[in-house]
Amino acid sequence: MKNINYAWHQRFRELYDKALVKFGNEHRKVGTFFTPREVGVLRSIGAKPMELYDYAEDSSDLDSETALLITAVRRDYFIVMQNSVWSEKIIKVDDLPAKDAQLGGIPWLPRVIQKAKGRLRGELPDNLMYCCGGDRKFFRAYDIHPADFMRFVWSAKGSEEKISEYVKGKR
């Protein structure tokens, strides 16, 4: 894993591009997208193969720069807050707020907050994507970049009141 710190973004982009090619070639087995060494590179920056699969699947509406910025926030959290140690917890989809739940009169906000927290900690299950189509609709409606939202959730230390006020201020 030469230069994984200095050039981590380049390695991420190489693996992102590989995922795009594999997905474009109808390869749908995420477990064989990457070599064990490449999975190790992803894990060293706090990323999972499934995340790159999701980015490839949604690439027509989610650009590579957004994928990189989201991963950069996760990587920072992983290194700074988790000391590069993976959480052993995985969020259960059924435990998330409902899609129609509201916070401060804002639909989807309770759900996307929990997804952002899960993405920060690396605790999202493979069948749940941060920045899915529903999340992107929310972010566009409030003119918030998904990576900026994650950073704010982190800085707000999970305070739903602060997060709600932040989102209201964006409208």
Characterization of this structure:
This protein is mainly α and 171 residues long. 56% of the residues lie in helices and 2% in strands. The chain is built from eight helices and two strands, in the order ααααββαααα. The chain has helices at 8-24, 36-44, 49-57, 64-80, 109-121, 133-142, 146-155, 160-170, and strands at residues 102-103, 106-107. A two-stranded antiparallel ribbon has the order 1-2. α4 (64-80) runs parallel beside α7 (146-155) and α5 (109-121) packs across α7 (146-155).
Query: How much beta, percentage-wise?
Result: under 5%
Q: What is the first-to-last residue Cα distance?
A: 43 Å
Give the total of domains.
2
Number of strands: 2
Poorly predicted runs are: none
Feature tags:
about 170 residues, single chain, 2 domains, two-stranded antiparallel sheet, mainly alpha
Detail the topology: elements first, then pairings:
Elements: H1 8-24, H2 36-44, H3 49-57, H4 64-80, E1 102-103, E2 106-107, H5 109-121, H6 133-142, H7 146-155, H8 160-170
Antiparallel strand pairs: 1-2
Helix pairs in contact: 1-3, 4-7, 5-7
